[in-house]
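I have been asked to look over a protein record a colleague put together. Thanks in advance; the entry in question is below.
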Amino acid sequence: MKTVFVGLLVAGFTAVSLASVVHAYAYTMAIRTSCKADYKRHCSDKKVGSKQLEVCMRQKKASLTKTCKSALKAAGYR
């Protein structure tokens, strides 16, 4: 019985971890799609995924499109 419980526990953690990865990927794709033009216009000299890009986008926040701002907000960026 203990082995079955441990197996279910491991399976549960694996499922939660996988769901988190899929969720993060969905947000990444939404941001890339929604912010592509903003990236090209304001921060194209920064590497995608870098801290420098995040800083640049924050500095240009007032100039970003509504679509990009919404995607960033949905992903938890403020």
